Amino acid sequence: MTTIVHAAGAAELLAAIPVLTGFTPRDSVVLLPFRGARTAGALRFDLPSGAIPAAAEFAATAIGLTCRVPETDALAIAVYADAAPCQGGALPAVALVEELIGRAEACGLHVVEALFVGGDSWADYRDQESAPHPLKDVPPPPPVPGFAGPAPDQFSGTELPAPGLFAAESVGRALLAVERVLGPAAQGRTRPPTPARADPRAQETALLLDDLPSFLEEVLDSPEALSPFATAALVWVLNRPALRDVALVQWASGIDCGDRALAAQLCHRRRGAAVPADIGGILIGDGPRPDGDRLGVALALVRHTIPLAPRDARGGPLAAAAWLSWARGRSTHAARYLDQAQSVDPELTFAQLLRTVVDAGILPRWSFRAAA
Questions:
Q1: Coil, strand or helix at 349
Q2: Less packed terminus of the chain by CB within 10 Å, N or C?
């Protein structure tokens, strides 16, 4: 939530929304916080359905999140409903927008715009007597350096790559060899029988994991070119809760924090010592803002790993992908990965906890610090 885009009017504001969000919203409510005359990012929510009480609850949550963006003194509202074109009569979601406006004004926020986009036109909630405006008249999105263009919708980018059969089989065999040395990767898997001749690459992989932070740092250098055994090792790590937490903390903060996180996990396991607050806080989105590019590389690494893993060993990597998406402010993507993780392992505790956070609309604290 750091891009700042100027807009001179309602049409220009609609043109800017795909730049601020990174995609063209579908069936969504988008709130744009303002500081004076400047936008400060965007918050997107699924378009709710239901009666006034549900609308009131939604408005309280949405405006509450908007107020957490530092120095916000105004906001714009845009409702996207693909199946509800602008036609005669009242616009869809009027009650919802009225609740949002009322809650915003009660919080001292000036409402700059309240717009509806549906079908091939758009309209102004506060000027419903006017004829709808054609969407084709909305100007193109403003140019932003390094931005290739908006994705088709908020779900774009969650599709996992399709690996070749040989690549997946190679990783599957490598994981079996690693499990013979280190034990089962995930709940429900058993240690494979020991063959007459052990694969020396499995022993090498086990030694590689003796320095887990170094391994986690090295795999970021070539996320799409790991060997089958390195990929198998990553699958094994991400299915072990304590080691997965080390990976997520390190990818969010650097190898020094990875060293500290690993030491904290070992102390906790051996003596029951508490994990330092600054380390544990990273997992709940508290702490310095992570490097977005670093999180993006880590997510690309995990997304490449997931389809290479056997299905019953994908729960941990999918949950890691969900957390990395959430850490980047992409709760919609996180929910998609959690759906898949919980279909693989309904008892996965980390996925259950993160699901509670995502469903409650909670974002990492560093998301709001970034908007500052």
A1: helix
A2: C
Q: How far apart are CA 248 and CA 257, in angstroms?
A: 10
**Which tokens in the block code for residue 59?**
């408005």
**Nearest in space to 39 (alpha carbons), one of 3, 11, 79, 71:** 3
DSSP string for 36-72: TTEE---EEEEPP-S-HHHHHHHHHHHHHHHHTSTT-
Rounded-to-integer distance, Cα 228 and Cα 234, Å: 10
Residue-level pLDDT at 165: 85
Cα separation, 135 vs 119, in Å, equals: 9
Task: Express as a percent the part of the chain with pLDDT over 90.
Answer: 69
Q: Running DSSP on this structure, what letter comes out for residue 193?
A: P
* Nearest CA among 67, 54, 61, 131 for reference residue 93: 54
Nearest to 79 by CA among 34, 45, 53, 128: 45
Tokens read off for 211: 């320095």
Q: How far apart are CA 288 and CA 283, in angstroms?
A: 12
Question: How many CB atoms lie under 10 A from the CB of residue 103?
Answer: 20
Mean pLDDT of 215-233: 93
Alpha-carbon distance 40 to 35, whole Å?
A: 7
Whether 12 contacts 66, CB under 8 Å: no
Report the pLDDT value the prediction gives residue 86, as an integer from 0 to 100. Answer: 63
CA gap 118, 27 in Å, rounded: 9
Q: CA-CA distance, 168 to 327, in Å (whole number)?
A: 28
The partner residues of 84 in beta bridges, in order of sequence, read: none
Interacting residues of 98 by C-beta distance below 8 A, sequence separation 6+: none
The pTM assigned to this predicted structure is: 0.90
The DSSP H or E segment spanning 268 is helix 255-271
d(CA 367, CA 113): 24
Cβ of 247: how many Cβ atoms within 10 Å? 28
Residue 310 DSSP code: -
The Cβ-side half-sphere exposure at 309, using a 13 Å CA radius, reads: 31
